[in-house]
Amino acid sequence: MLSTVLLGGLLALLGHSLSEEAQWLAQWTAPLVLCALGGVYIYRHYYHHHFHLTRAYSTVGMVASLALAMFLSPCLEIEGFFLAAGPFGWPFVGLLALTHGLLTIAGMLLWVFLAMRGLKKLDWHALEHNAGLITGVTLILAGILLFLLD
After folding, report:
1. What is the C-alpha separation between 33 and 77, in angstroms, rounded?
2. pLDDT for residue 33 is more than 50
3. Rounded to 5 degrees, what angle do the CA atoms 108, 120, 51 make?
4. Looking at the predicted structure, is the pLDDT value of residue 17 above 80?
């Protein structure tokens, strides 16, 4: 979440700069970035290999590697929104960062709670394999909506 917000702040600054320098360019940039990211996720959905862990790892090693991997891979899905929020000023960017952080933490806690309650007994394999497609379509729809609302 921290790396996402840091990268988001840089993109918001870029969005703010674009809005001051070239208003017409900023109106097109954020929706195009969202649509492009959506296209990347849809492409990756169809052209990636899915791997499962087959070997038991130590708990400390697994948690440390997951934490490092999560920090080094910010949530790119939200970054287009940071770019779009830049022209609205830092209070709005801060609200976006706060909302993203709270929803991320609440979502993680909810999923861990549900998983601990037996959600793992259900077969989520199909949803797992279509997550990229769902994310890609959502990003493209958000880009189109942002363009139409502007």
Report:
1. 10
2. yes
3. 85
4. no
